[in-house]
Design a protein that fits this description.
- The protein has a domain at 12-70.
- The protein is built from 2 helices and 5 strands, in the order E-E-E-H-E-E-H.
- The chain has helices spanning 31-40, 72-95, and strands spanning 12-14, 20-24, 27-30, 48-52, 65-69.
- The chain has a 3-stranded antiparallel sheet with strand order 1-2-3. A two-stranded antiparallel ribbon has the order 4-5.
- Strand 2 and strand 3 (27-30) form a beta hairpin.
- The chain starts with 11 loop residues before the first strand and ends with a helix.
- 3% of the residues are buried.
Amino acid sequence: MARGKKSKIGDTRISANGYHYTRTRTGWTLTHRLVAEDKIGRTLTPEERVRFLDGDRTNLNPDNLDVYEIKQASREKKRARIEARIEELQAQLNEL
């Protein structure tokens, strides 16, 4: 898509990190998520992720996509990391 042109629903683009994005009514969405949703016949939940079985972000073949649910422990670890970072930043702010 050319710069300065308004994108239409269904337009796609590839970001610098190799992920494909598709324009939807609600905004830009990762294309592999759309393909996976079509494959399983429903919308993905916030706890579900999609991985490329061969590691190739350009291979959007539905057979190459695997839907999995992130584990509760993963969410708890992430929350702990974020809270620790907040505490660290608050300490730095207090020093100033």
